Amino acid sequence: MKAMQFKAYGDPSNLVSVDLSPPIPKGREIRLNVRATAVNPIDWKLLSGALRWVLPLKFPQIPCFDFAGTVDAMGPEATHFHVGQPVFGMLPIRHLGAAAESLIVDEHLAAAIPVGCALHPMAALPLAGMTALQALRDHGQITSGQRVLIIGGTGGVGHFGIQIACRLGATVTAIGSTKNLDLMRSLGATEVLDYTQPNFAVGKRDFDIILDAHGQRPFSDWEPSLAPEGHFVSLLPSLPLVISALRLRITSKRRIHIVMVKPKRADLEWLADGMADGCLKVHIESEYPLERLTEAFEQSQKGHTRGKILITVS
Ligand SMILES: NC(=O)c1ccc[n+]([C@@H]2O[C@H](COP(=O)([O-])OP(=O)(O)OC[C@H]3O[C@@H](n4cnc5c(N)ncnc54)[C@H](OP(=O)(O)O)[C@@H]3O)[C@@H](O)[C@H]2O)c1
After folding, report:
1. Which of 261, 304, 306 to mutate to test the pocket of ligand 1 (most atoms within 8 A of CB)?
2. Element (H, E) at 271
């Protein structure tokens, strides 16, 4: 099988194409013919070595977490799927390896692709979609009628976040750059704010949830916009944010949460239902074949992805 591989920490130009023997599934594992994977910023952050103190990698390493494909072989105890079935999912953060023609995964980390859903775009959904869902539902405790602010409303996480918040009955304000205002409206945001304008400010507001999918401004910039019992949900841990979280615990009913996405079949099924009934759409900005993964990572590194970058494997 063909795969893209890193031999050591480095930038995307260090990716090489390799030919490996297909792995054999054991226990409750299934083997997939991978049709597509997708790029997430954590892919190139992990491989750069920037996170090596918290998430060290062994090399050689095949990157990427998201996958969509068909079941090709099953371990002796795997019972949930059948050979030939289209499935999608996310590998656990410590076990990346989806940028390959063949992939082994424990069956509880995959979900069936509903009849009628195109197979390839489902690879764009798992990591970013589950992050948005777990951030809003599990950390933000979102309920119908709430007001939600999404910072970075057209990135992988943000563009699912807008749609999921709307689907759960919230009213969404989204922040992005000028070129993305129409996209954020089309995803369901009722108010859009352009961070590139010189007079950009959110000001004093009462958002029940602020989902920060950008993470580059200090919490103090957003604090005046958070309701007295509001939840600020960040995707990027930092020491100042942890200190602010401790301060709020002592001084107010506001809460700060730091998300670490966890793959769960039930959440994949929730997202798949949304795709099947048309409530949830994946915006694919661009597609690259597997052997051009380097270019796809370099595009993601610019920090302005509109929706998702898809990698076609076969
Ligand atoms: N903790 C976790 O479990 C977890 C899970 C997933 C992702 N993450 C992290 O969360 C972040 C977002 O992930 P992603 O996949 O959504 O990234 P992405 O697809 O690269 O999207 C980045 C977004 O940031 C926006 N942006 C850039 N500059 C901005 C600014 N100054 N103000 C507001 N928005 C700005 C971009 O919009 P414009 O094009 O309009 O500038 C784009 O929508 C990444 O750092 C990622 O590593 C963490």
Report:
1. 304
2. helix 265-276
| Region(s) of the chain under CATH 3.90.180.10 | 2-125+282-312
Give the per-residue pLDDT at 94. 84
- pLDDT per residue as tens digits for the range 206-227: 999 999 999 999 999 999 999 9
How many angstroms does the Cα of residue 130 sit away from the middle of ligand 1?
A: 15
Q: What separation in Å is there between the alpha carbon of 42 and the centre of ligand 1?
A: 11
Is the per-residue pLDDT at 71 higher than 90? yes
Q: Considering the domain 128-258 in this protein, what is its CATH number? A: 3.40.50.720
If one residue of 133, 192, 214, 233 were mutated to test the ligand 1 pocket, choosing by the most ligand atoms within 8 A of its CB, it would be 214
Question: What DSSP string runs through 190-258?
Answer: SEEEETTSTT----S--EEEEEESS--S-HHHHGGGEEEEEEEEESS--HHHHHHHHHHHHH-S-EEEE
Taking domain 2-125+282-312, whether its CATH number is 1.10.510.10 is answered by: no
Mutate to test the pocket of ligand 1, among 46, 235, 310 (most ligand atoms within 8 A of CB): 235
Residue intervals of the chain classified under CATH 3.40.50.720 are 128-258
Q: Is 34 in the pocket of ligand 1 (CB under 6 A)?
A: no
Q: Is 193 in the pocket of ligand 1 (CB under 6 A)?
A: no
Give me the pLDDT at residue 36, please: 98
Backbone angles phi, psi at 225, to 5 degrees: -95, 0
Q: How far apart are CA 294 and CA 5, in angstroms?
A: 11
The pLDDT of residue 156: 98
Residue 114 above 90 pLDDT?
Answer: yes
In the chain, pLDDT over 90 holds for what percent of residues?
98
